[in-house]
Amino acid sequence: LKMSWFWFYLPLHLLMTACLCHSIKAPTTSSQQSFKTDLFNFYHSLMLADGKETTIHLLKDIPKRYYFVLEEGRPLAPFTITVTPCDVPIEWSILVHKASASFLGKAAQGDHDTQEVSKSQKAPNMVSTIFNYKGNSVETYMGMSSHSALYMLEFLSTERDTHITVYLTTDTTSGHLYPELPMDPRIDVIGIGHTTVTLTWKHSPPVLQHRENIQYCLLVNEKHNYKSLCAAETAIRSSGIKLPPTLALSLSPYLLEPQQVMILSNSELSIINKASSGEVRQICMGTKNTYTVPNLSPSTQYYFDVFVVNLLTNASAAYTGTFARTLDEPEPKVVELKDGKVIQVALDGKKQKFYSLQYQARHKKIQFTFQLCHGQVRVHITKNGRTVALENISGLRCFSLKGKMLDTYLVQLRSTEETNSSVKVQVSPHFHKPLFPLIPESLKIKSFSKLRTCNSVTIAWLGTQEESKYCVYKKRIEEDQVWMELRSADMCSGPESRHKSEKVLCKYFYDINLQRAVTTETIKGLDAGTLYLFDVYLFGPSGIPVRYHSKAVKTRKKC
């Protein structure tokens, strides 16, 4: 680290003087006492607390210094310092005043970026650097001092503003703030599926002794591993998600943000953070050291980190993270389509899987017809591997395609909603008599508000140039049922699913001039102030019906 040795020595010297003068009961003038008190209080505010984790915020390229004093009281005074970067790599060093440079020290974790300075080396201006480190790993220094000593820790971030946590303790006999990791802290992948990964890890020693105060928490994401819990927390916050403290891993009753989903089952807490960069899952599973992560995406690489958390202090220690790629999604089963045959396909909206249909053309011109029964469906048609149609369909949709004999067409269907969808599919030669009737430009039913009475309503709908049969049905409903009735309506179902009492009339109608292909009907015998749902069914030569979109109309209450 770049330092000004003069300015380092000056505060150390003054602080040592202030500390010594503070303990000597000698007569002084009031001005001298005031200066020493102010000086001591200034440096006391930068003293690291013993036995407490301290959060330190660093500004880019601005060093920050903290001090601690080891008082003479026993032959070898041990101390431990743990620094946890919560974002980018940082540089940090431990320096000691030369007047108390009789010490022994070592790094608890080996690292190629870690450098230790021998006690025989002499730094200029009475200051020695005994340890320095650069990186973003959690690093612990353990040392011993044989004399009273004043130490300084200097921290520097050269990439951007960040924060770290620092833990200093001189009590090495009453246990550790951080849970202890096993000798082998690796996470093993013991099973990989299309949508699951099974992990196992060796128990943390405190788990075997204090099960009620310790638990394991797993973090899953698609970007990279995290070396500490605060690093993971910082990364998730930077993606635009506001988290409760310590990722809510201590099961504290914090309220979740709108971007979070909490799932609690079988004594496991799962929190899914939905961000633009993907989702981050946190699963706490008590003291189980084997876990199968469910609901993953096929052909995707995931990173897994396990943290052992002390529920009393919220302190945590990270296992060595791992990663795994889920298996490729199996090729979907392909169903062969036959000329003129109609099949109905049910699509699972939750799994978002494709349903594949294949057809080998026996003619140059063919026509695919899709009738959406309910939900939302995306249709993708390829010919010999090249896309010829890609569309979200509604109602009845036909695709007339031209190619060569023996061309291979592949139709892939997928629900675009999380709810289930259903669609009817037919393929036939272009000259083949169509199974579905000729449909108008719009399948909407229109009602005329001014023509409503207490016991009648007037509706209208478009027809075609082909003479067809139209049947009208009505159903009495409550106002709070309208949304559900419209959403759950099966557009593929015909009048056979309706009660006979709901039938109003059937009529034949057509017009060569499409501008005049409109028909109206006044339905009488209704109750005043009552809401009705009206449906119109269109029948073609084959007898297969096409259902218009339902229309809700309420009769007048007073006339």
TrEMBL record:
It comes from the Eukaryota. Residues 232-329 form the Fibronectin type-III domain. GO terms for molecular function: heparin binding. It is found in: Secreted. GO terms for biological process: nervous system development. GO terms for cellular component: extracellular region. Keywords: Glycoprotein, Neurogenesis, Repeat, Secreted, Signal. Residues 1-21 form the signal peptide. Secretory protein that plays a role in various cellular processes. Acts as a chemorepellent acting on gonadotropin-releasing hormone (GnRH) expressing neurons regulating their migration to the hypothalamus. Also promotes neuron migration, growth and survival as well as neurite outgrowth and is involved in the development of the olfactory system. May also act through the regulation of growth factors activity and downstream signaling. Also regulates extracellular matrix assembly and cell adhesiveness. This is Protein NDNF.
